[in-house]
Amino acid sequence: MDKHLKETRIDGELVYNGHFLKVQRDTIALPDGKHTAREFVLHPGAVVILPLLDDGTVLMERQYRYPLHQVFIEFPAGKIDHNEDPLASAKRELEEETGYTASEWQFVTKIHNAIAYSDEHLDLYLARGLKAGPQKLDEGEFLETFTATIDELLQWVREGKITDVKTVIGIFWLDKLRAGDWTL
């Protein structure tokens, strides 16, 4: 199945080995037998938390993202540490970034946000039964939290105020869950 589309690795090398990201360059055989190269970012994977407060509002973050030199509105999120269970990562990231803990967790979906140049995946989790506590930000991490309604978030997506793909997808999931169109 799909053999007529499959690309096959011939060989490859790690061309950049950074603290967080790695870049791989592989020589591959195309479905027609010709050879070409593929370069892509190796990423450990990440989690995204959709923190829904008891009043129906959503806990959000504002954080400066250096590659694009601007502050973005995002869901709490973070990379999965080596050999870490994704749910444990989600719980850790929610508490570190926001100070909140949650009594209810549900897996929502897995997304691949940059399929043309990265193997990164993100596991989205819905967190409910939130309880406030102190933030435990990593050294060098600066962000602020705030709450918004799902309708406000949808409006900000329409207006282009929210462009982060993981956040846009998470907002659409929250809207579908709220409407009863989708279930977990």
Automatic annotation (TrEMBL):
<dbReference type="InterPro" id="IPR000086">
    <property type="entry name" value="NUDIX_hydrolase_dom"/>
</dbReference>
<feature type="domain" description="Nudix hydrolase">
    <location>
        <begin position="41"/>
        <end position="170"/>
    </location>
</feature>
<dbReference type="GO" id="GO:0005829">
    <property type="term" value="C:cytosol"/>
</dbReference>
<dbReference type="GO" id="GO:0016787">
    <property type="term" value="F:hydrolase activity"/>
</dbReference>
<keyword id="KW-0378">Hydrolase</keyword>
<dbReference type="GO" id="GO:0019693">
    <property type="term" value="P:ribose phosphate metabolic process"/>
</dbReference>
<dbReference type="Pfam" id="PF00293">
    <property type="entry name" value="NUDIX"/>
</dbReference>
<protein>
    <recommendedName>
        <fullName>GDP-mannose pyrophosphatase</fullName>
    </recommendedName>
</protein>
<comment type="similarity">
    <text>Belongs to the Nudix hydrolase family. NudK subfamily.</text>
</comment>
<dbReference type="GO" id="GO:0006753">
    <property type="term" value="P:nucleoside phosphate metabolic process"/>
</dbReference>
